[in-house]
């Protein structure tokens, strides 16, 4: 029995390896640092950047016992960045490829810690039937696989898989993880010291939690009867306590009736065999075959330890599947965003999708309206309501604001062709560089081409500007133009009645439509321009978001917005102000 207290930390080495050998098993720990060799300033230092050299070194360290198959090997790797925030190397290889090649037991990482949720755990599996979408994102902690486990003649080595476990941090969250390796089974317990110190810590080591500790190979081994019965024949738990433990009791609950009923309650005995653990190992024999079930979360385990002072400590209820099935572990939307999305692969598809949709909105309707002989207006839409008439009217009003759509289109082209920001790139000051959507550029290489660094890290600047500044600006300016068109029609309708009564006679049907529409609350909203006031509030939110983004860049790169990124900092506020000014009157 081995247990390891682990803390997420900033690694200061390139790659290091530790090995432990027991009488029946070998343990291999490989840690590495995948930060860039040059220190970029935040916020564009979000990703790990493993090089081909580092990947080859990790591959070599994980392979060192492959030629000695006499003892099984448990391989564990640890680093700072989760795989969702790890970029591919220059050759296109990734950490995930290396880990799957060696079928790690687990990869432990930090970076995100517990800021985005408690279920930052992800199972990786090499599948020949992997869907294309799963290369970009995974919807929950377990991959949705379309292939079966195969037959028993394939061998367990056919499974290439590993668990990725994000860890809490000690510096800010005062969180600690205790990791246990029990005959090849990995389990852990997280301790949150912000909730207070604990006199007793309990870590069940077998059976495993079926939500985020069981691997697919476990189900195969159990189904094919290739398990070590001695490892399955006892329930085992580690107990760490500052006081003498008087008793340890394990309870198993059956959830099938709809509530939890105790089906097994047994005292656990302290194991006096040799151990390297500073905790005490308690065991209880059981008939594990009695708990076989096709449901991975029918049976639930709980351990209670009582010390000589009468203080009782209970573990959380945890589901288990003795036949190795995995229970569903769903992410919240925040956990999915940071753990389930492969941002290195998603950056360019998101970028080009935005540009395709935006240019389609700005240019295609303009061309269609220019060559269309049909008149699209607000009264035309009221007289004959349809989706096409409504969309055409909205775009006609938007294009009616002089130079607005052209200014937005030119700015989008500028962001593709020209630098966004000029600033001090590195943490130690030094050289100035400029940022494009492809990354930071500091100098040309030997053949005169640009060398880009910090990609996809620059997505934290690029994507928020596109989706939270430019896109809302297009929507808000369009809303301002449409509101002006509605107000103009209301104004002309009222003034027409006062100045020329015969207009009503000549255009009877149109006037009746207008009168019926403008009666009641609708006319009140238009007359007082409440819609415009609401849109102006949204405009203030855009101004504030853009101001905060510019302030972050000013502080991060020690620059002046009017000197080092005037186009980026001023274009959207100027266009939005221009739209507000042009739509203030009929």
UniProtKB/TrEMBL annotation:
Residues 1-22 form the signal peptide. InterPro entries: Ig_TMM62, Metallo-depent_PP-like, TMEM62_C. Residues 348-566 form the TMEM62 C-terminal domain. Keywords: Membrane, Signal, Transmembrane, Transmembrane helix. The chain crosses the membrane at residues 346-369, 403-422, 458-482, 530-547, 562-581. Residues 197-325 form the TMEM62 Ig-like domain. This is Metallophosphoesterase. It comes from Rhododendron griersonianum. The lineage of its organism: Eukaryota, Viridiplantae, Streptophyta, Embryophyta, Tracheophyta.
């Amino acid at each position: 029995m081995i247990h390891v207290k682990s803390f997420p930390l900033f690694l200061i080495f390139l790659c290091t390896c530790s090995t432990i050998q027991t009488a029946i098993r070998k343990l291999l720990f490989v840690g590495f640092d995948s930060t860039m060799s040059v220190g970029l300033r935040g916020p564009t230092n979000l990703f790990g950047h493993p090089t081909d050299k580092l990947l080859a070194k990790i591959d070599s360290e994980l392979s060192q016992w492959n030629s000695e198959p006499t003892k099984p090997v448990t391989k564990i790797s640890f680093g700072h960045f989760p795989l969702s925030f790890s970029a591919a190397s220059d050759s296109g290889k990734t950490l995930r490829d290396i880990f799957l090649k060696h079928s790690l037991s687990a990869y432990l990482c930090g970076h995100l810690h517990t800021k985005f949720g408690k279920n930052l755990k992800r199972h990786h599996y090499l599948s020949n039937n992997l869907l294309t979408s799963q290369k970009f994102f995974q919807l929950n902690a377990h991959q949705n696989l379309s292939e079966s486990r195969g037959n028993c003649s394939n061998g367990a080595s056919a499974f290439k898989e590993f668990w990725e476990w994000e860890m809490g941090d000690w510096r800010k969250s005062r969180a600690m993880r205790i990791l246990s390796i029990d005959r090849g089974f990995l389990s852990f317990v997280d301790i949150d010291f912000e909730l207070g110190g604990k006199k007793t810590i309990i870590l069940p080591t077998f059976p495993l939690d079926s939500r985020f500790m069981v691997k697919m190979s476990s189900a195969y081994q159990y189904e094919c009867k290739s398990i070590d019965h001695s490892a399955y024949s006892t329930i085992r738990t580690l107990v760490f306590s500052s006081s003498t433990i008087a008793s340890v009791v394990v309870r198993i609950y059956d959830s099938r009736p709809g509530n939890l009923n105790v089906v097994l309650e047994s005292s656990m005995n302290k194991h006096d065999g040799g151990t390297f653990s500073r905790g005490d190992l308690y065991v209880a024999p059981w008939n594990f075959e009695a708990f076989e079930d096709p449901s991975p979360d029918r049976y639930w385990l709980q351990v209670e330890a009582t010390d000589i002072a009468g203080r009782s400590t209970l573990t959380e209820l945890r589901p288990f599947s003795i036949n190795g099935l995995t229970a569903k572990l769903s992410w919240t939307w925040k956990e999915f965003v940071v753990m389930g999305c492969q941002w290195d692969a998603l950056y360019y598809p998101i970028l080009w999708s935005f540009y395709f949709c935006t240019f389609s909105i700005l240019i295609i309707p303009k061309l269609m309206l220019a060559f269309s002989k049909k008149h699209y207006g607000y009264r035309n839409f009221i007289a004959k309501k349809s989706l096409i008439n409504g969309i055409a009217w909205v775009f006609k009003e938007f294009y009616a604001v002089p130079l607005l759509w052209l200014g937005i289109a030119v700015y989008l082209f500028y962001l593709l062709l020209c630098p966004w920001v000029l600033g001090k790139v590195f943490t130690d000051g030094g050289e100035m560089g400029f940022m494009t959507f492809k990354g930071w550029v500091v100098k040309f290489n030997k053949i005169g081409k640009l060398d880009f660094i910090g990609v996809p890290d620059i997505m934290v600047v690029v994507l928020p500007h596109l989706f939270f500044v430019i896109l809302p600006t297009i929507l808000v300016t369009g809303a301002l133009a449409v509101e002006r068109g509605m107000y103009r029609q209301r104004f002309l309708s009222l003034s027409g009645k006062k100045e020329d009564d015969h207009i009503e006679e000549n255009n009877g049907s149109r006037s009746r439509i207008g009168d019926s529409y403008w009666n009641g609350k609708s006319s009140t909203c238009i007359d007082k321009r409440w819609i415009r006031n609401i849109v102006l509030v949204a405009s203030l939110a855009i101004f504030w978001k853009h101001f905060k983004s510019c302030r972050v860049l000013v502080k991060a790169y020690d620059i002046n917005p009017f000197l080092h990124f005037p186009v980026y900092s001023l274009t959207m506020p100027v266009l939005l102000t221009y739209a507000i000014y042009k739509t203030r009157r009929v």
